[in-house]
Amino acid sequence: MGKRFISSLLAVTMAASLAAGCGSASSDGNGTDTAGSGTDTASAGTEVSTGAAQSDDKYSEENPYHLTFAYIEFYQQDDAARTAVQDAINDYMIPNYHIEVELLPMESAEYQRKAQLMMSGGDAVDVLPIQATLATSWINMGGIYDMTEFMDTEEGQAIVDALGEELAYAGSMNGILYGFPANKEYVELGGLCMRADICDELGITEEYGLEKDKDEYD
């Protein structure tokens, strides 16, 4: 797969995965590891054993590149819901970028071990996230690729446009750009649930106007 196509893939995959918090990685035509965004600011490179080495002109809407997207699933998801998300991604990716995405969820407890086994075993995985806390081990094993050379391309500029200059280079260390933040926190919902009777007893309901905003939380 040509570097220009890889760059496009990285930018598009990153944009598509901002809500999911996933990272991207792929391989160029010479088997050189390349990588995209991680769970925080790290990225992994893998050698893809499928048709990734073909040039980008080999793919079309009728014959898209099959991209395996591994990610950490922190909560058990409904199969139908996961399939609906995958179908929605492909409705956009196939006609626009000639890429068919296959989602590959993995549990958090098994992710690091399974991801490394997949890489060492030559499994067909194109995209996988790397948590910042585990980045050092990936760097030491040569699983991280410097993304700097891609940033001067049109697709690299698309990453800057999507994240902003500061966040786009947040994954840099000692002049090496290891990856891009997923920014999943921007779209994740958070909150605190408390018993209504306790809130009433402590005066929290009145103090914070919880009853007034009740419809917002129902």
TrEMBL record:
Transmembrane segments: none
Gene3D superfamilies, per database record: Periplasmic binding protein-like II (3.40.190.10)
First and last residue of the signal peptide: 1-19
Region of interest: Disordered: 25-59
InterPro entries hit by this protein: SBP
Keyword Signal: yes
Pfam families, alphabetized: SBP_bac_8
Highest taxon of the lineage: Bacteria
Ranges in coiled-coil conformation: none
Record's keyword terms, sorted: Signal
Keyword Signal: yes
Ranges of Low complexity composition bias in the record: 25-46
Name listed for the protein in its UniProt record: Extracellular solute-binding protein
Organism: Candidatus Scybalocola faecigallinarum
